[in-house]
Specification:
Elements lengths: L6 H7 L3 H33 L22 H6 L3 H14 L3 H12 L9 E2 L3 E2 H28 L3 H9 L4 H31 L11 H12 L3 H33 L2
Antiparallel strand pairs: 1-2
Helix pairs in contact: 2-4, 2-6, 2-8, 2-9, 4-6, 5-6, 6-8, 7-8, 8-10, 9-10
Length: about 260
């Protein structure tokens, strides 16, 4: 029986080292852009879920001016369209596979939109890279939404009341009082999302993004060597994720130490 791993096969991978270098750069860029898009989207979704927009509020008041406690009109009066849309978005994207979302965005959305076909940094195909970023960013936003919402709700309500009593508007209170403290609390979770995206970005090679797995696929097709390129990819992902995780854990300890009284 042939050996599971042949050390001689690793020499066949050496000529393709440049592909792996490019794949590492693409993976890191993909993860950074994904987290940035996901964070901005998640912030909007979190505010939508926490909003109190009830356009049919008046239906909840009866002819005597009392608040209805039950009935169809009472239910309609409590309907918040922004919360409904944000909740539906989050639940749908968290309950469907990432690869399905990537295919829908690439073939369904950008299949009818002609993207420019130039190359970033001379080798990254924009018409493949951009749909991958959008798909992963939309997926990441659904998960980061709950993290941001929890961070905002963790801030003591007394601070909001105090800022409003000082004359700050609701937007100013959110911007200058609530969000800075919430971001400090959720920063480790956002950084951990970056590590998760590094691993999940491997799925984008299915639409032609030249990431690490794309390099593996190219080596397999050229040399007919299968296991060894996968082991190289495993080592590369480990070298990206493990130090990053430890760095995040270090800063998380430093931040929590600073909060102790």
């Amino acid at each position: 029986m042939d050996q599971f791993v042949k050390w001689s096969n690793f020499s066949k991978i050496v000529p393709y080292a440049e592909l792996f270098k490019e794949g590492i750069l693409v993976t890191v860029m993909l993860s950074l852009f994904t987290v940035m898009i996901g964070f901005c989207l998640a912030l909007v979704l979190a505010l939508m879920r926490m909003s109190n927009v009830r356009p049919f509020r008046a239906l909840g008041i009866d002819k005597n001016g009392h608040q209805r406690e039950s009935g169809a009109l009472a239910v309609i009066s409590r309907f918040n369209p922004l919360e409904f849309l944000a909740t539906a978005y989050v639940e749908i994207l968290r309950s469907t596979p990432v690869i399905v979302q990537v295919f829908i965005i690439y073939f369904g959305v950008f299949g009818v939109i002609d993207l420019p076909s130039f190359k970033l940094l001379g080798f990254i195909k924009f018409d493949r890279f951009f749909p991958g970023v959008v798909a992963l960013g939309m997926n990441s936003g659904a998960y980061l939404c709950e993290i941001i919402r929890a961070g905002i709700q963790s801030i003591d309500g007394g601070q909001t009341e105090a800022s409003r009593s000082l004359g700050l508007t609701q937007v100013q209170t959110l911007r200058y009082v609530v969000l800075p403290q919430a971001l400090k609390n959720i920063l480790p979770a956002i950084a951990n999302e970056f590590v998760v995206i590094i691993k999940e970005s491997a799925i984008t090679y299915t639409i032609g993004v030249q990431d690490i797995m794309s390099a593996v696929n190219a080596v397999k097709g050229a040399t007919f060597v299968i296991v060894e390129p996968l082991l190289v990819a495993t080592a590369v992902y480990f070298c990206l994720c493990f130090p990053t995780s430890k760095l995040i854990a270090y800063f998380e300890r430093r931040m929590s130490h600073g909060d102790k009284r």
